[in-house]
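Something for you to look into today, if you have time. Could you write out one complete protein record for me, on any chain you like? Leave the record below and I will have a look.
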Amino acid sequence: MLPKKLSARISRNHSWAVNTLKKYSAIPSVSAQKQGIKESILFLEKLFRKCGLKVKIISARGRIPPKAGKTPGHPVVYAEKIVNPAARTILFYNHYDVQPAEPFNLWDTPPFSPAIRNGKIFGRGVADNKGNLIARLSAVKSFAEIGLSLPVNVKFLVDGEEEIGSPSLPSLIKKYRRLISADLCIWETGGKDESGRPKLILGCKGIMHLELSIQAARDDLHSSNGIIVPNPVWQLVWALNSLKDFRERILINGFYQDVRKTDRMDKIILRKIPFNEQEKLNKWGLKKFVLGLKGRALVEHFYYQPALNINGLSGGYQGPGHKTVLPKEASAKIDFRLVPDQNPADILKKLRCHLDKHGFVDVKINEARGYPPARTPVNHPYVKLVAEAQEKIYGRTPVIEPLFAASGPMYLFTPLMPCVCEGIGHPDCKAHAPNENIYLKDLRLGTKCIAGIIIKIGNAQ
């Protein structure tokens, strides 16, 4: 358990944390739309300094003052409190950018006017990822307020581009590698499962997302010409069909060659992960999962297998009624979810070779972006310490998951330090969707959990 004075101070600071989160989440920091970036930087710079941390606003090209105007990418807000250069250091990775809030009409209250009801706070970014930052900062702030010295050094790296793939982060990490060095990174996401048990996630899948496009005639034509003029929609459908079979097997040559095989420890983890199949089927309105998978085979497939998804198709007339047209072009947006040890650059090269080999040389690959998967070993000693801290605070054994099913730039950090996900989300927090929310009680408990982790890591032999 936490020292009584520290636990009491965190509880007293709860209203501060809620009010600060409301102010922070009121900033419409939508990186995809280039909104709220300067406002977020100024807010965080002031907030960190008030809490006794030193702050730097940095970019891949050097220090960028908040008033500098246009910058190369969205700057990172870095803050630190070094209590003892010889002590262990925890780095908190978060991001101040959020997803677009559209469609606005599906929100019960305005997305950037955070509202409290039924024990929850609603607003864009409260779960992903502003609430986690406030919980972590509130924990650090509480130590100082009771005169208790932090047993670790703490560093915060707050990304401004996570929701658009963190394109500036690789060069920034390379440039500021010494500045961000730490013994452990607490990643931006995390929360509880459906039964209320805390989750401890040890990595995330990689991603490669792109657009496939093809053009045939210079202009749309009358569909009667389809007997002699190539139809780009058909050509795109055939190209997509060549990528995956009806058994969900991806047909790109060499696609699976770098997929890491599961070992004994992986299988032990899988056996301990609760996975309520019927509850998920009911929630998603499904009758069965792909391939009719069930039990441990389903769980292993979910965590350890890569995927290819079609995100959207476009081509030709989509309006009411019929229009007998031969479209001039067609496109599809797709993504690959990658697992250790696949590499997005390698997958992109293999995709191009596949398309050319199967006669789809006219299909272009556009806007290809992605990053590799990342994972911390389950037997790393810090994993055990974080799990013990979670169990002390929540009173329940945490669920250890090998990978987060979604993706993030964790691969930049795992070569430097172990990374784990621990946070204040819950299964219905609606991150990326209308009515995003967190429970207020989880904000308080999550703050205490971070304080417990700080003590555990600081006191470790």
About this structure: The longest strand covers residues 203-215.
